[in-house]
Structure formats: structure tokens, C-alpha cells
Amino acid sequence: MSSHAQQARTLVEALPYIQKFTGKTIVVKYGGNAMISDKLRRAVMCDIILLSLVGIRVVVVHGGGPEISEMLKKIGHESRFVDGLRYTDAETMDVVQSVLCGKVNKNLVAQLNRLGGQAIGLCGMDGQLFQAEQLDEKYGLVGRITNVNPAPVENALSNGYIPVVSTVAQGVDADTAYNINADTAAAKLAAALGAEKLILLTDVRGLLRNPKDEETLIHVVHTYDVPGLVAQGVISGGMIPKMECSVDAIAGGVERVHILDGRIPHSILIELLSDEGIGTMLKKED
């Protein structure tokens, strides 16, 4: 088949998906390798702009772990982790806030704008988007979200912007900012926005039945399967919190959660606008 015919087929295949999702809200949690590699970052940005141009309301929620670690190293402050979460003392919190709400957020916004998108940056403290209380003293200034006010994001969307959100929250129990896990924040925001989908970009193929074999990708998981898969050890390590917040998002009204491999260029477009899903999709019982 000629490449033109192939292109036409691809577009025809995408059409029903575009019709289905146009006007709907999709939240993309962006982090990991897809954020570090220039080539992958560009592919993610182009996907987000394309979705936005066909009328899909895309919200980007980002992390920035590597950039935070790098900045802490520059100022000679050691990164410490407790149960996989960054221990956040006051000095670390200052760095988290300036790196996430400042450098990382604005760089993403600028890059989207340069590629022809219309992006606007928001941090969890803007318009009280995320309010939080301390999760547990052992993690320091790490917060648990107590309230989400989606209005700033809604306003940006209705004005045609792509909101880019960093996950620092305003403390309600103390005069401080809190560091929030980006997966959790994305799940809570997706529920508050009544999003159709939440997409978590990760550095794995999705959920694998055997973590050492990429061919054992589980394409569809129902929320009621999750406890059993945790018990069997299929969902383990860093996948546990991802799955937990995915289940919460669905309980909060999000239709589908996709765990996608951010190392595959254009994985978002392939997952959303083609017949072949490539990651793990989580949904409620049929």
C-alpha cells in the first residue's frame, strides 16, 4: 500500500475516536523518561497539541523528580526517600516549589507554545487548585489532598488553553506548601474535572503479568481485579500506588485510566486514536 493510502487509512481509523472524544476532558500525567529525552518530550507535546486542535480538552499534570534531585545536589542537599516518597524538609520544599512551579512548569509551557500550542501554567496553589494536609510526619512536608478546586483549570480550558499543572499544594493545616505525588494529584484532578480519561505515562509497557517479560502485558484490568493482582504480586512496587490512584479516579467518575509506556513515541495518539491499544487500560466492571 502506498504511503499516501496508508496515511489516509490512519486518518479514517482515527475519525470515530476523534468524534467520540471531542469536547471531552483528558488528563495526562507526564513524567519519567518521556520528560527527560528531548525526542520523546517533543512527541508527547505534539500529541497533546494535536488532541487539543481536534477539540479534546487536554490537561497536563507533571512531576519533576530528576530535576528536583539535580537542584538539591547543586545546593549540596541530600535527597532522602522514605517508602519510595521523597522526604521533604523545609529546604527541600523550597526547592520543590521553585523547580516544579517555576523551571519545569514554565519550560513545558514554553515548549508547547513554541510547537504551536496555547499553554498556560498553573501550580496547585493558584486559585486553591489543590489544598492539602500533612500526610504523615515521617515524610516531612508531603501532603494528602483534602480539596480540589478545578475552576482555574476549567477557566483555562474554556478559553482554549492547555493547562499545565504542577503538583504543589496549599497547606490547610499549616502555613506551608506541600509536595504532592503527581499520580495522585492527576487522579484527583481528573475526578474533579469529570474527565473521560486519565493517562499515566510511565517507564514500563503497562502492567505485566511477569515483570521480566514485556510480552505478558495485561491489556485490560477491571477495578475489582486489582486486590487479587496485588495479592498475587502481579501489581507490586511502584505499580501499587499507580493502580491505587487509578482505582480512586474511576471511583471518582473517570471512565477509563490508561497506563502507557512513555518510552514509545506518540504512545498517547496510538492509544487514543487507533484500534490498537498499547498500554494497560483500567475500567469498571462492564
From TrEMBL:
Name the protein family: Belongs to the acetylglutamate kinase family. ArgB subfamily.
Q: Which domain of life is it from?
A: Bacteria
Which residues make up the annotated site Transition state stabilizer?
Answer: 29, 242
Sorted alphabetically, the keyword list is:
Amino-acid biosynthesis, Arginine biosynthesis, ATP-binding, Cytoplasm, Kinase, Nucleotide-binding, Transferase
Q: What is its EC number?
A: 2.7.2.8
Q: Which reaction does it catalyse?
A: N-acetyl-L-glutamate + ATP = N-acetyl-L-glutamyl 5-phosphate + ADP
- Please state what the protein is called: Acetylglutamate kinase
> What molecular function terms (GO) are annotated for this protein?
acetylglutamate kinase activity; ATP binding
What sort of enzyme, by top EC class, is this?
transferase
- Organism the protein comes from: Candidatus Oscillibacter excrementigallinarum
What role is this protein assigned? Catalyzes the ATP-dependent phosphorylation of N-acetyl-L-glutamate.
The record, for SUPFAM superfamilies, names: Carbamate kinase-like
Q: Which residues bind substrate?
A: 64-65, 86, 179
